[in-house]
Amino acid sequence: MVPRLYVPSLDPLGRNFSLPEDEAGHLRRVLRVKSGANVRVFDGLGREFEARVTAVDRAGIVVELGEPVVSAPEWSVRVTLAQAVLKGDKIDDVIRDAVMMGVACVQPMLTARTDVPEAAFLRGRRVERWQRIAVSSAKQCGRAVVPPVLPPCPLAACLGAGRVGHTLILVEPAAAPRGKLSWPPADAPEAATLLVGPEGGWTEEEVAASIEAGCLPVSLGPRTLRADAAAIVALSVLQYLWR
Amino acid sequence: MVPRLYVPSLDPLGRNFSLPEDEAGHLRRVLRVKSGANVRVFDGLGREFEARVTAVDRAGIVVELGEPVVSAPEWSVRVTLAQAVLKGDKIDDVIRDAVMMGVACVQPMLTARTDVPEAAFLRGRRVERWQRIAVSSAKQCGRAVVPPVLPPCPLAACLGAGRVGHTLILVEPAAAPRGKLSWPPADAPEAATLLVGPEGGWTEEEVAASIEAGCLPVSLGPRTLRADAAAIVALSVLQYLWR
Question: The domain containing residue B61 runs over which residues?
Fold first, then answer.
């Protein structure tokens, strides 16, 4: 496997450039890369190139840009995952999985039953860490696009996203007993937002407001899914439907 | 949430009985349950009952059986997940997820590129641990059935399972480039086996032998999925198709 390096400052017209410090450090210390090694560089916006290491020293690593590369194709539907923040670090794996499943954006959400104090986001530099998780998942899954992970916002802000050509889907475990086990039609929309709740689920008011805003409530089946598994299960179905 | 207890020796005609030691210990030490508390007991084969704690002492916990309970319904298709053993403990989460997704059986597999020495299974009592993971996942997701987790077997043994009414599906990342991005038809079979490979994928010989044995190769999309995520993604699609 050729290492894939994230270089957000990549200038496709440039020829030689120094790698960002974190990537250079990883290449030198962990992968022990030497001059002449082949790597790939991508800019997180969809461009990826072959490259060759031309200098390795304490000051950094210089690479020479080569031919463009075809990365893993992006999903034709711009899907945003709006995921309620979960207890502990559980949203980390959800972000990693969502990037691997091809989402265009991750929007962490604060809901009525979100059990995490808002101060925790400021203290822990969570959003930065989430963005690093997105970078690392993009490297692993072959995407040259790194989806943005936005700062947490309230559910209401996500519902406002509804507009023409934009499908809103609410994962609602109770949807099946109410006879609403429907999925969106197979004609892919331009864009979609998938809303997934916290451990304690949505309140009745949240479900009502979401449906009022145009959300299609979907059930993921009769078993109780772990809160951190709901997103990957729903994204798998959407990827199948809108492939 | 009423605690759900796994009592494989459950006699539905009995009235009062002592809980197994591990369940009694957990109830007493972790949940600090007292006499009079309501619990549920299930036998792992699909039967579940309300029950009430009638005695708590050092000798154990006695419960009195109540009315039968309707558990989370079982999938109408008997799906076996045949998952190649993964590095480290990564198959643990796959087993947990597969039980939550409703499989009837988990068959760990040894394949050409399985990177785990067979001795590791004997040393670590892995199969017992896997079975405990299945119990714990069944408790969490609401199933009264605990799917068996079998001792590892070679790929060839799983292919032999093919027979009338039994669909064999091979998760093969390379299936899409070869133009085989097909999923089984929505008419649910009686039974199916889903085969998922190890980190290094299948060898060409394994793919050929599987197709020869009647496997339908399916791709999970253009991005590289983590080896421990492939099963839940494929099971999500199958659950949607055969709901």
Answer: 4-68
